[in-house]
Amino acid sequence: MTSRENAGIKINLTIDSISNASVDVIVNSTNKQLQLNDGSISKFILNAAGPEMQDECNQKYPQGISTFKIAITKGYNLKCKNVFHLALPSWDENYSHLILANLTQIITICLYTAGRMGAKSLAFPILGAGKLRYPIEQLPGIMYEAVKNYSNQNSSQIKVVNFVVYPQDTEIVKKFHEYLLNRQKNEGLLPRDTVSSTPKTNVTSRENAGIKINLTIDSISNAFVDVIVNSTNKQLQLNDGSISKFILNAAGPEIQDECNQKYPQGISTSEIAITKGYNLKCDNVFHLALPDWDENSSHSILANLTEIITICLKKAEELGAKSLAFPILGAGILKYPIENLPRTMYEAVKNYSNQNSSQDQRCLLCGLSSRHRNSKEI
């Protein structure tokens, strides 16, 4: 398990096209001849970057590359400084061990090269998926372990690695989500009854809507966003409840003082209280109070959850916020059924995004609450 304190690399699972990644280095999976218009990921990167990228490949690498090499070009019109192009072999069951070892090696080469260039962030597609036919059930572990091992063995400047899954690849999203949560569970960071899979449908993309949704396995108090959403109680006593207590400890006592001064009567379940972020890495915190789960009122409770998420998004937009981080609302002591939460939260954000012109916004769903974290993170 990589921790920010010990190794420095934080791993995110991002649901989007990799050509939208705003990082120092984007990794592209292509072919040995570096013909970038061949292959879905490579073609998308080429179209976004512009033809100059292909020209640079032709000029610098006229003989192409081997499966153990990377070609480095500028990012051109992409939101990155450089693109690392690599060419993986097709899957062959008879050589599975060697092929997976090569995958680990090429990821390590990318990280090592990026670190030497001073890069702080990389975005990887899911390497080997698609027409190369690598078994997708093995890819989360291989890619995660490659980054973890590099991070544990090197004092690199790299801080963030994003694994980017194309929105339509819902089965890959599911496999990565299951792997990350099961890893937390097996290492004792999650109770065994909290592991669930992501919804199989309705994964949003920036192209279809203005809001990009990320699943981040981390404590929400680490979120570097404009707005953090806190789940607390009607009285706004922030030291009651695991998520709220962790936010209070990270923000400092001033956040409780502001709640007391501005909201002496507390809030209802359909309202939010707004405070500054203080020592958190955000401008504001939105505090909300959800009702406990009641099976007899399940429909109205889930409707209220959708409504309060919508209120948060609308208020954030009014404040000019570009990014929000939500905990998994209703999990824990409120006992909302966790199988309903991914879809309910996703649909609330998606519907708001479809109905409003909220461009270039980012929404983080933080899938590991403070009580589970124990100072460690994916």
Automatic annotation (TrEMBL):
Its main location: nucleus. The keyword Nucleus applies. GO terms for biological process: negative regulation of gene expression. Keywords: Glycosyltransferase, NAD, Nucleus, Transferase. The keyword Glycosyltransferase applies. It is found in: Nucleus. GO terms for cellular component: cytoplasm; nucleus. It comes from the Eukaryota. Residues 1-181, 200-378 form the Macro domain. PROSITE patterns: MACRO. InterPro entries: Macro_dom, Macro_dom-like, Mono-ARTD/PARP. This is Protein mono-ADP-ribosyltransferase PARP14-like. It comes from Octopus sinensis (East Asian common octopus).
